[in-house]
Amino acid sequence: MNWLIGPEFGQLFRTFEHTAFRLEARDSYYSPNETAALTQFVAGESVDMGWFQNWLSMIRTATAEGRRFTRVRVVSVPLTDYSRFGVFCSQYTTAAGEDIRYLARHDASEIPLDDYWLFDSRKLVKMHFDEHEHFLGGEIVEDPAEIVRYNYVRDALLHKAVRRDDFAAE
Q1: Mean pLDDT, the chain, as a whole number?
Q2: Residues linked to residue 104 through DSSP beta bridges, in sequence order
Q3: DUF6879 domain: which residues (predicted)?
Q4: pLDDT value at position 39?
Q5: pLDDT at 1
Q6: Which residue ranges form the domains of the chain, and what is each CATH number?
Q7: Which alpha helices (DSSP H) does 44-163 contain, by range?
Q8: Model confidence, pTM
């Protein structure tokens, strides 16, 4: 299977016209870029966010141009260390302009939960991971019925999920 990775995948974030939506349905992900920061966070140390600056800059640029980043994280309660780290990091992405929302897994039981990105409500990219949560690549889905289904999933999740700041306050 020919999956998008690296710069080819990254190009999607620079070329979408209006909206980029992400569903994160896993309790952890492995990224070599954030390993040190996650370790610092779990240890209760000051977290070096240098690894995150390119992503934040991209969000700021996109939102300044009127494009929107929206994300729903479906999380198990109690939160895993990784999910707690995600709530911590999301204060920065929210400040940069991303709309991040959270939904407890038990409140999403009737909704199919595949990780994906949806660009401009028409370009669907399913995310694939191995058994150790390493990202393998994004699969472009072109079936119109499947794209409509994932738009519905997005809408249902956004309806049920709570904004990051409200979730963090709980």
Answers
A1: 94
A2: 75
A3: 8-168
A4: 96
A5: 58
A6: 6-43+50-169 (3.30.870.10)
A7: 53-64, 81-96, 144-160
A8: 0.94
Q: Which two tokens stand for residue 8?
A: 């080819």
Which residue is associated with the tokens 């738009």? 151
Across the chain, which has 170 residues, the per-10-residue mean pLDDT values are 83 95 95 92 96 96 97 96 96 97 92 92 96 93 96 95 94
Condensed to tens digits (0 to 9), the pLDDT of residues 69-83 reads 999 999 999 999 999
Spatial separation of the C-alpha atoms in residues 64 and 32, rounded to whole Å:
29
Residue whose structure tokens are 């209006």: 18
Q: In the chain, which ranges are E strands?
A: 19-24, 68-75, 99-104, 116-119, 123-129, 135-141, 162-163
